[in-house]
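Sorry to interrupt, but I need a hand with the structure work. Go ahead and set the record down below:
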Amino acid sequence: MKPPTRLLIALSILVTLTAAVFRASSIARAQEPKAPSELLEGLLKETGWRYVQEHDGIFRVPMEEGPDVWVHASGDYVCTRAIVGDLPPPEELTTKLLLDLLMANFSMYRGKFGVDEGRTVWLEVNTPRRLFDGRELGLNILFVARAAAEHRITPKKTVP
């Protein structure tokens, strides 16, 4: 092969690589990540559920039966949460209630129960955003609402 031919091959490779880099950068710019509230609002619209934006990036889905469901982004995850109820005072807390929650936590593959510092029990499902679409969010909302209603903690009525 003559030297000018090598030069032409090298130039064509350089042009091809440059074009590939420009193409990749234009695709990356076109796919800039949306803000969490924009992303979630778009997903919530796809679900068909009625929702209210309570704070920036925090949405509430009012449920006809059972507790409302809250949706927000946390890092790379979409969190779907419902309040199950408040733990009774320590003197009224039963082993049965705690065991029921622990057994439900153990048998539940999609979610988890937790307790915050105010003794409020919640149920939450966290799903990576990259695996998420409106259909998945709709299923998470339905799951969280039903499971929280099923395990609802109701306060004992005290007799005066």
Q: What stands out?
A: Residues 1-32 form one domain.
